[in-house]
């Protein structure tokens, strides 16, 4: 009898431990938390991309591929507000130029069949169940509200070329961001090729002061830089955004630029301090 009592005590204690461990597990995510993310839905050869953020805002675009799934064409974009109420996911469409997917100035109700970590099943008013798959964007890239993928290339400082040896030294200091072309949901975001940075430095150092003394000329130079870098990036670069630009004649200004934009990240700061010759404000 005592032996049975000891066994029962062990079972009770063991059960208590198991119960305690279960009770101390991670908190289950709510539907609102699970619904936040980057989602994609395939309809024939059309991909509908949907980004929902914790603020209750969403953006969407439709992209079409050819039979090889290599050529991507964007059909348009839409955006609005979303929220979950009584097991329904509700989308308010504020702007849209893809009426076949999102009709402007409408409110669309979806019954929630299930929202998991990597899949979301929503039933529309006609009873059709749409399956959305979550896509994972690499942390090295930034996805803007407009669904553009940005690869930060970082700070580049070069000596500008000179027409004559007695011309004074000038330094071009800037931050480069690569804007990528539309990708299919199953395509990986390319990494910046090690030789791409060297190619950018070679190109920029071949410029003279006359090439960078105005906003329009720097913008024209950035378009040429796309052609220079694309062979190293498999043609994925759509545009280059150049921000925080200065042209300086003093090495102290160059050092200040490097310290401000490399050693102390300030993503929301204003354009860098103007150089002696000229400064070009952030290029949007």
Protein model, in words:
This protein has an 8-stranded antiparallel β-barrel with strand order 1-2-3-4-5-6-7-8. It has helices at 2-23, 31-35, 194-205, 209-212, 215-229, 251-263, and strands at 37-43, 46-52, 57-65, 72-85, 88-96, 107-115, 119-123, 129-134, 142-143, 149-159, 171-180, 237-248, 278-280. It is built from 6 helices and 13 strands. α3 runs antiparallel to α5. With 284 residues, it is of the alpha+beta class.
CATH classification class of the largest domain: Alpha Beta
Strand content: 35-45%
Question: What proportion of the residues is helical, as a percent range?
Answer: 25-40%
Mean pLDDT equals 76
Q: What CATH architecture of the largest domain do you see? A: 2-Layer Sandwich
Amino- and carboxy-terminal Cα gap: 82 Å
Total DSSP E strands: 13
**How many strands, which pairing sense, and closed or not: the largest β-sheet?**
8 strands, antiparallel, barrel
Sequence of strands across the biggest β-sheet: 1-2-3-4-5-6-7-8
Our Rg estimate from Cα atoms comes to 27 Å
Structural class: alpha+beta
Give the count of helical stretches.
6
Unreliable sequence segments: 1-24, 263-284
CATH topology of the largest domain: GTP Cyclohydrolase I, domain 2
Q: Quick gist of this model?
A:
This protein has about 280 residues and is of the alpha+beta class. It contains 6 helices and 13 strands.
Defining key terms:
Lipocalin; 37% strand; 25% helix; 8-stranded antiparallel barrel; GTP Cyclohydrolase I, domain 2
Helices, strands, pairings?
Elements: H1 2-23, H2 31-35, E1 37-43, E2 46-52, E3 57-65, E4 72-85, E5 88-96, E6 107-115, E7 119-123, E8 129-134, E9 142-143, E10 149-159, E11 171-180, H3 194-205, H4 209-212, H5 215-229, E12 237-248, H6 251-263, E13 278-280
Antiparallel strand pairs: 1-2, 1-8, 2-3, 3-4, 4-5, 5-6, 6-7, 7-8, 9-10, 10-11, 11-12, 12-13
Helix pairs in contact: 3-5
């Amino acid at each position: 009898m005592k032996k049975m009592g000891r066994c029962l005590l062990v079972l009770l204690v063991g059960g208590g431990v198991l119960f305690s461990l279960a009770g101390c597990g991670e908190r289950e995510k709510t539907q609102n938390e699970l619904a936040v993310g980057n989602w994609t839905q395939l309809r024939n050869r059309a991909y509908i991309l949907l980004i929902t953020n914790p603020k209750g805002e969403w953006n969407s675009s439709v992209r079409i591929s050819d039979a090889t799934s290599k050529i991507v064409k964007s059909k348009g974009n839409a955006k609005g507000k979303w929220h979950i109420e009584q097991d329904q996911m509700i989308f308010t469409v504020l702007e849209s130029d893809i009426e076949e997917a999102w009709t402007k100035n409408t409110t669309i109700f979806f019954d929630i069949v299930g929202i998991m970590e990597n899949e979301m099943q929503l039933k529309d008013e006609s009873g059709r169940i749409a399956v959305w798959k979550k896509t994972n964007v690499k942390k090295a890239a930034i996805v803007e509200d407009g669904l553009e993928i940005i690869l930060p290339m970082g700070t580049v400082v070069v000596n500008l070329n000179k027409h004559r040896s007695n011309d004074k030294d000038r330094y071009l200091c800037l931050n480069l961001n690569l804007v990528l072309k539309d990708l299919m949901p199953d395509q990986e975001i390319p990494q910046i090729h090690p030789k791409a940075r060297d190619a950018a430095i070679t190109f920029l150092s071949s410029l003279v002061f006359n090439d960078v003394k105005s906003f329009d000329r720097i913008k024209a130079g950035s378009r040429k830089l796309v052609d220079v870098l694309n062979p190293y990036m498999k043609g994925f670069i759509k545009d280059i955004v150049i921000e925080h630009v200065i042209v300086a004649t003093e090495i102290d200004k160059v050092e200040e630029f490097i310290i401000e934009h490399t050693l102390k990240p300030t993503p929301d700061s204003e354009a860098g301090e103007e150089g002696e010759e000229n400064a070009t404000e952030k290029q949007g």
